[in-house]
Design a protein that fits this description.
With about 230 residues, the protein is α/β, with parallel strands linked by helices. The protein has 8 helices and 12 strands. It folds into 2 domains: about 120 residues, 3-Layer(aba) Sandwich (Rossmann fold), CATH 3.40.50; about 100 residues, Orthogonal Bundle (Arc Repressor Mutant, subunit A), CATH 1.10.10.10.
C-alpha cells in the first residue's frame, strides 16, 4: 500500500481521486490548496503526490519548484487542463515525474502512478552498490563516491545513472531514457537528455570531453561501459 497525497482544489475531483485511490488499496491524504499541499508533502512523507497546476495560495508549479529546491525526490504527477501546454513543459523542467491532462480516466492516472512508483521506489529487483572505475554508486541509499570522495548527484541523475547501470553495454536511445527516467515519451525534448548526460559526465568522468563510461553512440543515443 502506498501513501498518496492529492493536491486538488476542485471538490468533486478531489473526492473522486480519494475514493479511487482508496478503492485501489492506497492510503490517501487530500490538500485543497498549494500551501497545504506543500506542508503535507513535507510532514507526511507520502510515496507520491498528485498535484494540480492551478491551485489557490500557491500554484502546483511553485510547490514542485520548492520541493525540488529542498532536495526532495518525492514522485510528482501534475494535473493540467487541456491547452496548458506551457504548464506541462514548465512542470517537467521543474522536476515533475509525469503529467496527466484533464479530462482523464482514473485508470489512466492509476497506470501513470504505478509506472512512476516502479521507477522511483527502492527495493524493486537487485539494486546493490555498483562499482566502475573509481566510482561507487548505491542506488537505494542515494550515495555516490568518486575515489572515496562524495559526489552530489540529483535525484534525476541517480535515476538516469541507475537506468544505465541496469542496462550495461546496451545502446539506449534518448526516447527510451525520456520514457524510463522522465516518464514522458511523446514530447520531443531529447535535448533534455543531452543536458543531463553532460552534467552527469562532469561528475563521474575523469575527462568529460573524452568519456569512458557514458559513451555517445552517433545517431542512436548512449551506451554505458563499466
Amino acid at each position: 500500500m502506498s501513501r498518496v497525497l492529492v493536491v486538488e482544489d476542485d471538490e468533486a475531483m478531489a473526492v473522486a481521486l480519494k475514493d479511487g485511490f482508496t478503492y485501489e488499496g492506497h492510503e490517501v491524504a487530500v490538500a485543497r490548496d498549494g500551501e497545504e499541499g506543500l506542508h503535507l508533502a513535507r510532514e507526511e512523507k507520502p510515496d507520491i503526490m498528485i498535484l494540480d497546476v492551478m491551485l489557490p495560495k500557491m500554484t502546483g508549479l511553485e510547490v514542485c519548484k520548492l520541493l525540488r529546491g529542498e532536495g526532495s525526490d518525492l514522485p510528482i504527477i501534475m494535473l493540467t487542463a487541456r491547452g496548458q501546454e506551457i504548464d506541462k513543459v514548465l512542470g517537467l523542467k521543474l522536476g515533475a515525474d509525469d503529467y496527466v491532462t484533464k479530462p482523464f480516466s482514473f485508470m489512466e492516472l492509476m497506470a501513470r502512478v504505478e509506472a512512476v512508483l516502479r521507477r522511483t521506489q527502492p527495493g524493486r529487483g537487485s539494486r546493490a552498490a555498483h562499482q566502475f572505475g573509481d566510482i561507487t554508486i548505491d542506488l537505494d541509499r542515494h550515495e555516490s563516491t568518486k575515489d572515496g570522495e562524495s559526489i552530489e548527484l540529483t535525484p534525476r541523475e541517480f535515476r538516469l545513472l541507475g537506468y544505465f547501470l541496469e542496462h550495461p553495454g546496451e545502446v539506449v536511445s534518448r526516447e527510451q531514457l525520456l520514457d524510463a527516467v522522465w516518464g514522458y515519451d511523446t514530447i520531443p525534448f531529447t535535448r533534455t537528455v543531452d543536458t543531463h548526460i553532460a552534467k552527469l559526465r562532469k561528475k563521474i568522468e575523469d575527462d568529460p570531453s573524452d568519456p569512458q563510461h557514458l559513451i555517445t553512440v552517433h545517431r542512436l543515443g548512449y551506451k554505458f561501459v563499466g
